[in-house]
Amino acid sequence: RKEVEQDPGPFNVPEGATVAFNCTYSNSASQSFFWYRQDCRKEPKLLMSVYSSGNEDGRFTAQLNRASQYISLLIRDSKLSDSATYLCVVRGNFNKFYFGSGTKLNVKP
Amino acid sequence: GAVVSQHPSRVICKSGTSVKIECRSLDFQATTMFWYRQFPKKSLMLMATSNEGSKATYEQGVEKDKFLINHASLTLSTLTVTSAHPEDSSFYICSASGASGYTDTQYFGPGTRLTVL
After folding, report:
1. How far is CA A12 from the centre of its chain?
2. Which of A9, A55, B37, B56 could form a disulfide with B69 if both were Cys (CB 3.0 to 4.6 A apart)?
């Protein structure tokens, strides 16, 4: 079983839609959680950290459910510029990071 | 803050040559640096993890004699692809992680696109 699993998508949504991605992780001792976005032929960029209480940054909301071992990312009012691959990243012990394979989002006009 | 640079951004070389890629953390001290490779439309693949002043830890299947990693200071790590072959053509990305902290994460360099002819 992979450490971090994501639905690869693609998620094809119209502009203005709300879309949500989930990601599950296998190690209950995981310490920190993050969402990155990666544009085609570019490096991943940190989108937001995910805190236990949930956190919001503009149109983006991230939540963590430790009991069920999943994190989620909600994007409201999707923009064309949100089209990218979203990577779920989990930090475990000894500064070891585990990356999901990414969920591809296509926002259509 | 948390800027990581990578040089060169693109390199084209002949088969059999060696290529060195530099990764620098510009505004923080990187206790750990990571090297990844990514093929088109594929996921990031971790190649190795390096801690400043110690030997790199390579992932299974990655040849340490072919991909030489040096992390001589808290702001610089280098990856040397020795005797490059066309199958080594890929997008190489480094990332850096700072001192321990709850929200500590990885910050990526812009990547190096290697083409071996």
Report:
1. 16
2. B56
> A101: nearest CA in chain B?
B43
> B15: distance to nearest CA of chain A, Å?
23
- Contact, A33 vs A49, CB < 8 A? yes
Inter-chain contacts counted by CB atoms under 8 A, chains A and B = 44
CA atoms within 13 A on the CB side of B71: 23
Q: Are A47 and A97 in contact (CB under 8 A)?
A: no
Residue pLDDT, tens place only, A45-76: 999 999 888 899 999 999 999 999 999 999 99
Quick: pLDDT tens for B63-87.
999 999 998 888 999 999 999 999 9
pLDDT score, position B103: 43
Nearest in space to A46 (alpha carbons), one of B105, B31, B18: B105
Q: Are A47 and A37 a contacting pair, CB within 8 Å?
A: yes
Q: Which residue of A4, A55, A95, A96 is the best one to mutate when testing the B interface, meaning the one whose CB has the most B CBs within 10 A?
A: A95
Instruction: Pick B111's closest partner by Cβ from A31, A43, A99.
Output: A43
